[in-house]
Amino acid sequence: MAGGGAERQHRLGKRTARERLDLLLDNDSFVEIDLFRRHQEHGLSAPSQRPHTDGVVAGSGTIDGRRVFVYAQDFTVFGGSLGQAHAAKIHKVLDLALATGSPVIALNDSGGARIQEGVPALDGYGGIFRRQVAASGVIPQISVVLGPCAGGAAYSPALADFTFMVKGIGQMYLTGPDVVEAVSGERVTHAELGGAEVHGEHSGVAAFVREDEVTCLADVRYLVSLLPGNNLESPPAAPRRDDVHGERPRFAEIVPVEPNRPYDMRDVIAELVDDEDFLEVHEDWAGNVVCVLARIDGEVVGVVGNQPLVLAGVLNIPASQKAARFVRFCDAFNIPLVTLVDVPGFLPGKDQEHAGIIRHGAKLLYAYCEATVPRIQVIVRKAYGGAYIVMDSRSIGTDLSLAWPTNEIAVMGAEGAVNVLHRKQLAAAADPVRLRAELTGDYRSELMHPYYAAERGLVDDVIDPARTRAMVARGLAMLRDKRKPSPRRKHGNIPQ
Predict the structure, then answer these.
(1) Is 152 a catalytic residue?
(2) What tens digit of pLDDT does each residue of 33-48 get?
(3) I need a surface site. Which of 336, 349, 359, 416 has the fewest CB within 10 A?
(4) Are 296 and 273 in contact (CB under 8 A)?
(5) Considering the entire predicted model, what is its pTM?
(6) From the CB of residue 283, how many other CB atoms can be counted at a distance below 10 Å?
């Protein structure tokens, strides 16, 4: 019942399936299902042994007293490979999670499809994928890669809402190094092809990358504490905060008045949320936008913010993809959205245009437009062009728009606007530098002053930066009972 023994797993720097469940779940809460299940294959190609569990430990337990369903693949039994019996246990877990409205957590450590069983193993994967799609947006799905996850198996983490990977042991790819070398002649290691760092920094498949299994599974528990059990529930609330209405003068100290000086948007988020505590999603991928889950006055919120430290905070293809998926997740699970705006525009260039920045940027636009949860926009410093519209502006449906006195909302920066509007005048001027400075000042004072947008109803209030946390908390309280029915349709067609 214990599987094939712990020694090999420990030599590989890994824990066994049951040791991992002990770390993940509350003490003595695990209820196992199908413990005695084993494969029923016969014939020359069938495995000679028929161990119980068939390489996956499945069941249900609690995290901080809240029900979750889990399955942990056991690499010590058939290398954790998936056959019919193995797949049937996972199907049952997914069905029960959906039926009870509970999150499901997958601990992946598998060599892939069980070759001896042939096409029934592939059918087993298809059943998993079909159930994951049916559960998408209904229950939270979390995948944890704690070993190999190769071939078709890699699609299961890709379909999950959040994927964790552990450095050194987590690997995920569709075709392994041997196949890559045979097809292309390129030699590559497992880590170079699909290690945790690859998917955390380059592909964006891994939302969280952790140093070890203990830290990883602790953060899975933390993530679950921020999520509702299903789409009909609200996220679990913590007690209200006595400090929420106090002033935070550090906001103004963090953000420079000069529009081109960088700062770390994470520092702004830390001042905004309870206890300066937040969980950042895709920390190492598309760093020019920051997406976090946190609490404000005890209520769970999703925060999206431009990051001036990376590419000056512009929106490009990866940032648009990252933010759009996060916004859609929050909307699916009743998590209010707070958007912190300091964006100079979309990243210009032939490469971005040819790679489809228009359709990828439209994903973020679509995500905000269809979101029905409470939405608050805070314009921290500047918001230029189409990027201003996309970052949850009043025109696409934000419920409350707040702006700091330093905000600049315009089609483009003052210098660029003057160069376009007064090109001939500047070319003919005796002192173009002085004239450009005068025209830039006029443009700022007439079209970019803090109250220009507020006078036209596009900003609800120009606030003291020190009052940002208090004003956002009040806005969230005001919007807590927001209800917005969706139009009657099968589903929309999000840009691809």
Answers:
(1) yes
(2) 988 877 666 554 555 5
(3) 349
(4) yes
(5) 0.92
(6) 17
